[in-house]
């Protein structure tokens, strides 16, 4: 029997497409048109594209000049630098940076001594191809050079297609990874292709779908992968079901398909139906949860009806969102056949999950209860369990027997080609939601004393944390996206970029830096990528027990640095029903710590392997938490961590840390509480004033009062060279094991503290930014300026184009600003609006009299306080402003005798005054220590103020 394959696993060719492919294209276009209509209604997407298009012609012209310069000069290093600078400019090619330029630079560095040959190659491959065959040849040429040099070939397609698409007269779309991923998910492209074959198939699809410019299809496919909107049910789907049904009629039990061509076509159509089901499942997941209040779990659609290689390929599709439980647990289901569309609540086959005597009687009792409580707007839907084309049909308000499925039915074409059909689907889901408990046949509410105590904590968690937030939903969306790249088909077309995002990103929980693994991934060649993909496929989907597979990959990792936290995240992403998203075993937030706070016993670590420890701990934690937050592993871990840190937060509730700080700092307690209120308002404040007024000292002491745990505080100091990459994150060069220059994404202090704050959202995390005004603030903060004001939003940052970043609301900023160096009036207006500014002036407010209080408390010469106050009065008069006064901290030292006073004045105070009155010797003489001591010392007399 021939090996099944999709209808699109075909080599790159300029031949006319087959009749089947033309037929498929017409059907796909119905879904594509719905997607285009949804994008037109998306104001955010339209605004973003309009902004990109404003720079489109300019970026294209610049790239043509760069390519022309390469042709003339053959300077490949200058070419790589120019491309890197070009990729960072605004326009429609923002996705190109930073991975594209970084890959080019790696090729250039590896070509040392042969730069001219590489330049000649790029001149050849960057020219606009005359047709598909030439494009395929150019892709293979660049791929061969990259593979020979030991570099990944993944960026070949986006890099070359970016160069080609800037030739506006050509029809070459850019093969962005998200766009290719959308076609693969939908089943419109085959997965088992070379790079050249994949790009030609991609380009032909874009040309066939878009009416004028294939770049429109490229853009819409990127939009589909990123936004995942529900667009409706295209009228081409029933046609696909109909053709698949005709092929199903040829299938013979126990013998299969009589012709290899029929089996191959049936497999291709089943892949398309599964792709359509995947799109429907993903796009409706969040709306269904919001409409019903249920926590739902997506279920993948199988391509065959039944088990075994001789089972027929399906001729229908259903998108399924199951509730927690066994195989008989209820699920919301959207079913599409060649006859109609159904949506409703499905209970599985008779006796599912309750095999044994009385199972069918139990099913009948549940069906009778459903019939008694059936909402008026829904009916029973009969489900044919056999491999038939029309598996669902309306059955009225009486139970027809078999599987229980209640909902609504729309015969074709009532529900087709309508974006607004979502309203009908969601309304039906809301209508059947009250039947969930009836279909389940049991009450899952926990009743034990320990569970009831946790239930009380759970209510506090929902309100106090709170849970769930939009960010929690984002984590689940990211898990589904990552899981799609790790399914068996996804691993056959291994996407290294997605795997690195899983390792380095925060989506569905961070696993740490893993620099060894990142370095190893950066140096993988094509055979190494194949080995990694094969090992991951065995780990996630292989035979044998999970523990055996995990221990095997840990003992012999396919790449250096693939440790247990990464492995456990892979398992949790792919199998959320079995693994909790908590990846370390030990540590402050590991499985052992969570087990301790939940009262869960774990086995002795010496009795078993690491894999079995992880599996046992995860299973016991899940058993404890599942009744509380059914089917929600992310929420279960967030609750457990909240409970853990809540215990830390209330360890000593009688201490008033702010009052203690005020006493230590000798400032009014009300002042610190007012600053605390300002922080709660905007989340960030700036202390500004003359040097030496204790801004930094008070900021650090106040931060310690807000957060006693030093691991949840950070101090950074800005300077004129501070950059976005220093503060937040950026690519940094380093040498790999072979001595080659590579780039890795390195997190700065803000990214690290933000991750810690997000992982522990119930306690404040504080960053003190000293000398905040010394840096170029718009350059340092970049797009993070937006997040300072809109904490509940996320943005795609410069180095996270595929993963949104947000500043957690429990991350607080305290900046200090020396106004002697730079006037507060010069601070960027956008920053002024986002911070509260608190003045620190020696003569007024909370700092007034501080030096006197300190000297009195430390048995110091209290007359010094009056001397400093009088000199500051003279300085304010002479300089017509308060920002160049003498700070009190100069004199807040022990053993302040006459010699120490003179030394402080001569070497700290007088040089500062000298800067302000440079060239005015007559005035400077009045501020020498001798003159000041005579004028304001303990035996001196008060004299008139020096002339201004």
UniProtKB/TrEMBL annotation:
Residues 1-22 are annotated as: Disordered. One of its GO terms (molecular function) is ATP binding. It comes from Allobranchiibius huperziae. The keyword Repeat does not apply. Keywords: Hydrolase. It comes from the Bacteria. The keyword Chaperone does not apply. It holds the Pfam family AAA_5. InterPro entries: AAA+_ATPase, ATPase_dyneun-rel_AAA, Methyl-DNA_Rec/Restrict_Enz, P-loop_NTPase. SMART domains: AAA. This is 5-methylcytosine-specific restriction protein B. Residues 681-840 form the AAA+ ATPase domain. Its EC number is 3.1.21.-.
């Amino acid at each position: 029997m021939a090996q099944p394959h999709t209808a699109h696993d075909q080599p790159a060719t300029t031949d006319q497409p087959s009749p089947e492919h033309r037929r498929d294209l017409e059907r796909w276009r119905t879904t594509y048109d719905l997607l285009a209509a949804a994008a037109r209604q998306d104001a955010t997407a339209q605004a973003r594209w309009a902004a990109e298009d404003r720079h489109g012609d300019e970026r294209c012209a610049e790239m043509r000049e760069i390519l022309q310069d390469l042709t003339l000069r053959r300077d490949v290093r200058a070419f790589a630098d120019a491309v890197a600078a070009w990729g960072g400019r605004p326009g429609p090619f923002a996705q190109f940076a930073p991975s594209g330029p970084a890959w080019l630079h790696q090729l250039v560095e590896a070509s040392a001594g042969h730069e001219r040959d590489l330049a000649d190659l790029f001149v050849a491959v960057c020219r606009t191809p005359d047709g598909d065959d030439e494009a395929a040849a150019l892709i293979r040429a660049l791929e061969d050079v990259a593979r020979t040099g030991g570099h990944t070939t993944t960026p070949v397609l986006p890099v070359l297609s970016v160069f080609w698409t800037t030739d506006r007269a050509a029809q070459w779309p850019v093969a962005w990874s998200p766009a290719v991923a959308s076609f693969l998910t939908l089943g419109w492209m085959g997965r088992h292709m070379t790079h050249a074959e994949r790009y030609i198939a991609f380009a032909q699809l874009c040309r066939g779908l878009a009416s004028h410019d294939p770049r429109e299809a490229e853009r819409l496919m990127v939009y589909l992968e990123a936004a995942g909107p529900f667009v409706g049910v295209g009228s081409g789907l029933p046609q696909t079901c109909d053709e698949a049904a005709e092929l199903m009629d040829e299938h013979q039990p126990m013998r299969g398909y009589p012709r290899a061509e029929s089996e191959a076509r049936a497999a291709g159509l089943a892949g398309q139906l599964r792709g359509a089901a995947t799109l429907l499942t993903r796009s409706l997941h969040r709306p269904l949860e919001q409409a019903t209040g249920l926590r739902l779990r997506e279920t993948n659609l199988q391509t065959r009806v039944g088990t075994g290689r001789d089972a027929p390929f399906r001729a229908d599709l259903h998108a399924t969102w199951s509730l927690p439980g066994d195989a008989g647990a209820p699920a919301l289901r959207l079913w599409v056949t060649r006859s109609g569309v159904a949506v409703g609540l499905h209970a599985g086959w008779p006796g599912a999950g309750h095999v044994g005597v009385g199972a069918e009687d139990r099913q009948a009792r549940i069906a009778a209860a459903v019939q008694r409580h059936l909402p008026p707007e829904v009916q029973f839907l009969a489900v044919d369990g056999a491999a038939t084309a029309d598996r669902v049909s309306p059955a009225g308000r009486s139970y027809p027997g078999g599987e229980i499925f209640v909902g609504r039915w729309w015969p074709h074409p009532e529900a087709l080609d309508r974006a607004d059909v979502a309203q009908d689907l969601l309304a039906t889901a809301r209508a059947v939601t009250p039947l969930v408990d009836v279909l389940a046949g049991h009450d899952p509410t926990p009743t034990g004393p320990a569970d009831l105590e946790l239930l009380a904590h759970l209510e506090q968690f929902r309100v106090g944390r709170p849970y769930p937030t939009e960010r929690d939903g984002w984590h689940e969306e990211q898990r589904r996206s990552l899981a799609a790249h790790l399914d068996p088909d996804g691993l056959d077309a291994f996407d290294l970029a997605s795997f690195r995002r899983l390792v380095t990103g925060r989506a569905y929980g961070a696993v740490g830096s893993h620099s060894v693994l990142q370095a190893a991934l950066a140096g993988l060649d094509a055979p190494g990528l194949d080995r990694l993909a094969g090992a991951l496929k065995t780990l996630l989907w292989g035979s044998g027990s999970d523990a055996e597979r995990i221990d095997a990959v840990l003992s012999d990792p396919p790449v250096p640095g693939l440790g247990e936290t990464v492995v456990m995240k892979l398992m949790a992403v792919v199998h959320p029903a079995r693994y909790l998203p908590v990846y370390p075993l030990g540590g402050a937030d590991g499985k052992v710590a969570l087990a301790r706070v939940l009262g869960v016993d774990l086995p002795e670590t010496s009795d078993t392997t690491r894999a079995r420890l992880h599996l046992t701990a995860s299973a016991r934690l899940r058993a404890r938490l599942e009744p509380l937050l059914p089917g929600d592993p992310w929420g279960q871990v967030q609750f457990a961590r909240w409970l853990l840190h809540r215990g830390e937060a209330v360890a000593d509730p009688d201490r008033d840390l702010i009052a203690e700080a005020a006493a230590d700092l000798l400032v009014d307690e009300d002042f610190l509480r007012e600053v605390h209120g300002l922080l709660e308002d905007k989340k960030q404040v700036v202390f500004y004033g003359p040097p030496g007024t204790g801004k930094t000292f008070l900021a650090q002491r106040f931060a310690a009062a807000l957060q006693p745990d030093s691991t949840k505080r950070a101090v950074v100091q800005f300077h004129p060279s501070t950059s976005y990459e220093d503060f937040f994150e950026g690519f940094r060069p380093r040498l790999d094991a072979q001595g080659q220059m590579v780039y890795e994404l390195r997190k700065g202090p803000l990214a690290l503290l933000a991750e810690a704050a997000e992982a522990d959202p119930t306690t404040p995390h504080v960053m003190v930014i000293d000398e905040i005004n010394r840096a170029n603030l718009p350059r340092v903060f970049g797009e993070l300026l937006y997040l300072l004001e809109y904490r509940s939003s996320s943005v795609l940052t410069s180095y996270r184009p595929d993963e949104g970043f947000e500043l957690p609301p429990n991350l607080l900023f305290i900046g200090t600003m020396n106004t002697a160096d730079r006037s507060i009036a010069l601070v960027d207006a956008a920053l002024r609006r986002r911070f509260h500014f608190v003045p620190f002036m020696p003569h007024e407010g909370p700092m007034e009299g501080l030096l006197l209080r300190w000297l009195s408390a430390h048995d110091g010469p209290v007359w010094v306080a009056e001397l400093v106050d009088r000199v500051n009065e003279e300085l304010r008069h002479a300089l017509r402003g308060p920002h160049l006064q003498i700070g009190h901290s100069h004199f807040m030292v022990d053993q302040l005798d006459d010699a120490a006073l003179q030394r402080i004045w001569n070497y700290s105070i007088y040089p500062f005054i000298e800067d302000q009155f440079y060239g005015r010797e007559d005035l400077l003489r009045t501020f020498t220590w001798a003159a000041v001591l005579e004028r304001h010392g303990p035996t001196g007399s008060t004299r008139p103020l020096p002339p201004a």
